[in-house]
Automatic annotation (TrEMBL), chain A:
Species assigned in the record: Salinicola endophyticus
Coiled-coil region list: none
UniProt KW keywords: Membrane, Transmembrane, Transmembrane helix, Transport
UniProt name for this protein: Sugar ABC transporter permease
The ABC transmembrane type-1 domain, residue ranges: 65-276
Membrane protein topology class: Multi-pass membrane protein
Homology family: Belongs to the binding-protein-dependent transport system permease family.
Compartments, as annotated in UniProt: Cell membrane
Length: 287, 365, 370
């Protein structure tokens, strides 16, 4: 292709500037911090990979990383199938469509910190709807004192907040399947499971890929809700990676270490996302 | 304005899409690109329009080198297989849109839109919206939009394929008439040989990105330059038989036939014989030499006034297009007669050696 | 295997249909016999797909009944009716191999493995897709996918009928030939009722033993391709069947005799009387382009001038503008060698091929009367 003129570059320029300021420059700053020991703006030493070595052997990171993986895994394992089930049971035409769409959109409109506050109240064992109900049933539930209960509450809160997103994505995917596929399946005497397995699921693959990646990245970076609900406790039961990082950077003002931590964190997300992506698309070209 | 392609080649990532296309399309001509799906018809049109730039070669329009001129600066219009109209504009505004873009005076727009709409028989629909129209009317609207601006080059990419068979028939005749009095270069892509013939003008045969043959449609049909061209241009496709001329005989498979007088001058060796389905006869012919072959009936497809008889001779598939209705049972054994005067003889590599002699075409055609 | 009877069937997509125009299908009685190869032919919007979907059970008719071998099946689903249907655009299960696609309907019925294997191989061989069996369906071309869709329709040997909804739309013309031939062979081999919906008359005529021509929600004629061609019972059939369609010329009655554009027709007395009796109705003379003969101008009463010649390769279509009314064109089909040098030509209309219509319906007369 021969360029006729270079005017088009000017149109792309704002995006370059935007990306530079929003991503590239901050990231480079972090890289810069991560290889130095900073005492004050004028006193800094180059320390090379020392922060990285220290972080990688830090038990705090190990603990919260394991906690984080278990948490993200649970989030995906619950929200993805649940979202698909919700999407499948949604009406395909009539008045039910806008009603169910609005109902599903509601949790998504609630700000993160408000979600935390809501569940702080709902989960209370004395006056909370959910907490008092469980205690009334004879189950000893207290998210403020029991690490297990706190952890489960954070998980339920996330499921409540984000399953709608998965459901909405799946619903849009299902809507794009032409009727003729269902007709063909009826004629082929396919069971409901076969319809799901061979028509709906393959057609949902692309939206599921997006849903899985979004939910993984989001849950892996969860911060606000547990921070509001439990402040990371009791103990460190709900202290996830981002909170560990914040404690390090702000609480202890350990900028170099926090920068190295950030980069490792970033690489983990990138790697896992890439693994998901390849795993879900790899058999496209086969056959 | 005439359009000229000079060694136009398009390669994308090492794959050749168009291979050395050379074409001269005259001003006022109607040109049909005929080829199977994926033969490169759309790609060639995109190169003509300037939507793509060739990797090699030049595109000339009216003597000017247009190879590097972007499509926006060319006076080109295109009609697609799908009916593409602006859904929020009325038929009038749809047709007027290219003129408005060109800042034509309002009175002039009014006049030209009405004239074009009248030509295409949609003048009573000008106030309607596209979704309120039938498929045929929508495609007429799209065609009117392409015709209204007097483009130098109008491209039709299988425009009738999504329409009813009957509608196609009448639009084909209309298209011929529409372009008869214009100095536009019209290019029309199709997969149907019958459509190429019905549209008249010039036919360009395409196969796998190569131009196999081009010329006046009737001539290309009657004088295909090789076996490829003969089998592309014909529906059902031409019957091809491997034959050997040796010892004063014509051998087809195990069949040994006396060598027809018309082929006495051919050297001994291998040839390929081509005979169009409508020249195959079940009854011996009163005049002229014939080759007689035993065949087995595979299936007889019966139309209203005609029969398509599919047969095999020694594992070779043959088809006859017969007038009248012939009800024949599967596996029935028959003899067919192939008139030598109507047969094509090809070299083993496919080059045409002999073709039937045709009388001069009609004086008033 | 079944005979399909449509009893007093009608369908409207509206809730309270009153006028005939409200019906997508007008009240009809019709029988598809067991083992026949039928086509349902008509322009888009004539109701043919509606009728097909009612037969397969994808759509419930608003009035009347569908009977399979005399048993009402209105309440039965497509599965229960045991119908196979092939759609206009290929429907394949993307993630399965071609083999699994073909085996799918059989496995859903719980057929034993050996039966599945044998049947799939047989159908794949018939459709010439054996080399594709191991491939993933998503990587096939459109026409290969359509063959797989067809294969799924053909693979069950116990179906009541196979319905095709314009199955060759996405197929190249050259391939259409082969596929149509395949379908016809398969029909002859498997002896199953097949109904084939299309708007292409050639496709219909070559596939079917009998064609139902639909127009405005009605079956206007049901007959062999030959009957439709030679004796259309409705002007629409004359127009729609044949390429180009039948020539239709307006007639008027002058002093009890039939005239065409001012020229009295050479007809037996009985016909003049029959036509004169219909005075007041719209009278038309229909004749196929294949049957009009071109003669020197001085040998015929009806004359015209050549307006356009379409060279179709194996034949030519000549448009002749009548001298009496140049806006009236008569199409004539002549062979590829005919050359037309004369300006003015005579048109001879053989009596045996003239058909007469009153308000679009065929007029008949008994042989004795002539």
């Amino acid at each position: 292709m021969k360029p006729y003129n270079n005017k088009a570059w000017w149109l792309v320029l704002p995006v370059f500037v935007l990306v530079a300021f929003s991503a590239i420059i901050p990231m480079m700053t972090v890289v810069n911090y991560s290889v130095q020991d900073i005492f004050d703006p004028s006193t800094r030493y180059f320390v090379g990979t020392e922060w990285y070595r220290e972080i990688l052997s830090d038990p705090r990171l190990h603990d919260s990383l394991v906690r984080q993986f278990i948490y993200s895994f649970c989030v995906l394992a619950i929200e993805i199938p649940l979202g698909i089930i919700v999407a499948l049971s949604m009406p395909r035409r009539g008045l039910g469509v806008p009603v169910s769409l609005i109902l599903l959109a509601l949790p998504l409109l609630v700000p993160w910190n408000v979600v935390g506050t809501i569940w702080q109240i709902i989960g209370r064992e004395d006056i909370g709807l959910y907490g008092s109900l469980l205690n009334g049933l004879g189950i000893d539930y207290n998210y403020a004192s029991s690490p297990r209960d706190a952890w489960i509450t954070v998980l339920i809160m996330d499921v409540w907040h984000w399953t709608s997103l998965v459901a909405l994505l799946c619903y849009s995917g299902l809507r794009s399947i032409p009727d003729v596929y269902y007709q063909a399946a009826r004629i082929d005497r396919a069971s409901a499971w076969a319809v799901f397995r061979y028509i709906q699921l393959p057609k949902l693959k692309n939206v599921l890929l997006i849903a899985v990646m979004l939910r993984f990245m989001d849950s892996f970076m969860i911060y606000t809700e547990p921070f509001v609900l439990t402040g990371g406790g009791p103990g460190t039961a709900t202290t996830f990676l981002s909170q560990t990082l914040t404690q390090m950077a702000l609480g202890q003002f350990d900028l170099g270490r926090a920068a190295a931590f950030s980069l490792i964190y970033f690489l983990i997300i990138l790697l896992v996302t890439w693994v998901f992506y390849t795993a879900m698309t790899h058999n496209d070209d086969k056959g | 304005m005439s359009l000229q392609l000079e060694n136009v080649t398009l390669k994308v990532r090492g794959e050749t899409y168009i291979d050395e296309a050379n074409l001269q399309l005259d001003s006022g001509s109607f040109n049909v690109l005929l080829g199977h799906t994926l033969a490169g018809k759309t790609t060639l049109m995109r190169l003509m329009a300037g939507l793509d730039t060739p990797s090699r070669g030049r595109v000339w329009l009216g003597g000017r080198d247009m190879t590097d001129v972007p499509v926006r600066q060319r006076n080109v219009s295109m009609v697609y297989q799908q009916f593409i109209n602006y859904p929020t504009l009325t038929v009038f505004d749809n047709i007027a849109s290219p003129l408005k873009q060109a800042k034509v005076a309002r009175a002039e727009i009014q006049r030209r839109v009405e004239e074009t709409a009248h030509m295409l028989g949609i003048d009573h629909l000008l106030g309607r919206y596209p979704q309120a129209l039938s498929g045929g009317q929508q495609q007429r609207t799209a065609m009117a939009r392409a015709l209204v601006k007097d483009a130098d080059l109008v491209l039709f990419d299988e425009p009738l394929v999504n329409l009813d068979y009957k509608l196609r028939e009448s639009l084909r005749v209309e298209m011929r008439k529409l372009f008869a009095s214009r100095d536009t270069v019209a290019v029309y892509a199709t997969t149907e040989p019958a459509e190429a013939l019905a549209l008249g003008g010039t036919t360009v045969l395409l196969k796998e990105g190569r131009i196999v043959q081009s010329g006046p449609s009737g001539e290309v049909y009657r004088q295909p330059c090789n076996m490829e061209a003969a089998s592309l241009f014909g529906e059902p496709p031409i019957n091809l038989l491997a034959a050997e001329i040796a010892g004063g005989e014509c051998r087809i498979g195990r069949q040994r036939l006396p060598l027809p007088a018309a082929w006495q001058h051919l050297e001994e060796g291998h040839y390929r014989l081509g005979v169009r389905p409508h020249h195959v006869s079940l009854a011996p012919l009163a005049t002229g030499e014939t080759l007689c072959l035993p065949v087995q009936v595979r299936v007889a497809e019966i139309g209203g006034s005609e029969t398509f008889l599919h047969m095999t001779h020694d594992e070779i598939d043959l088809v006859a297009h017969l007038g009248g209705i012939h009800e024949l049972a599967v596996d029935q054994a028959l003899e067919i007669h192939l008139p030598c005067a109507e047969m094509f003889v090809f070299e083993p590599d496919g080059e045409l050696l002999l073709s039937p002699a045709f009388p001069a075409t009609a004086a008033c055609a | 295997m079944a005979e399909i009877r449509l009893a007093q069937l009608a369908h409207s997509y509206q809730d309270n249909p009153s006028a005939p125009e409200d019906y997508a299908l007008r009240r009809m009685e019709h029988v598809w016999e067991q083992g026949g190869a039928y086509a349902l032919l008509g322009p888009s919007g004539c109701g043919k797909s509606t009728l097909l979907n009612i037969m397969s059970g994808l759509l419930a008719p608003s009035e009347g009944e569908v009977l399979f071998d005399g048993k009402a099946v209105n309440a039965l689903s497509p599965q229960q009716r045991n119908i196979a249907q092939v759609f206009q655009f290929p429907v394949v299960y993307d993630t399965m191999t071609v083999f699994d696609n073909l085996a799918f309907p059989l496995r859903n019925q719980g057929k034993p493995k050996a039966t599945v294997e044998a049947r799939v191989r047989e159908v794949a061989a018939a459709l010439e897709i054996e080399p594709l069996l191991a491939r993933k369906a998503r990587n096939l071309t459109a026409d290969e996918k359509q063959k797989v869709s067809m294969g799924r329709g053909l693979v069950r040997d116990d179906v009541a009928a196979i319905l095709f909804d314009e199955p060759l739309t996405v197929i190249d013309p050259q391939l259409k030939w082969r596929l149509r031939r395949k379908l016809k062979e398969i029909h002859q081999r498997f002896n199953v009722t097949m109904v084939y919906v299309t708007h292409d008359q050639l496709e219909a005529a070559t596939f079917a033993d009998k064609i139902a021509v639909m127009y405005g929600g009605q079956i206007v004629q049901f007959g062999t391709p030959r009957e439709l061609f030679e004796t259309p019972r409705h002007t629409f059939v004359g127009y729609f069947i044949g390429s180009p369609g039948m020539n239709l010329l307006e007639l008027e009655i002058v002093a009890g005799r039939a005239h065409c554009h001012g020229i009295e027709l050479a007809l037996p007395e009985a016909w003049h009387a029959r036509l004169a009796a219909q005075e007041g109705a719209r009278l038309q003379l229909g004749i196929r382009p294949e049957f009009v003969e071109l003669v020197p101008a001085d040998e015929a009463t009806l004359t015209g001038r050549v307006d356009l010649i379409q060279d179709q390769g194996s034949f030519k279509i000549v448009d002749v503008a009548l001298t009496a009314d140049p806006t009236q064109l008569v199409k004539v089909r002549v062979d590829e060698y005919t050359s037309l040098a004369e300006e003015t030509l005579g048109l001879h209309l053989p009596e045996a091929w003239m058909r007469f219509y009153a308000n679009d319906l065929l007029l008949e007369i008994s042989d004795e009367a002539v």
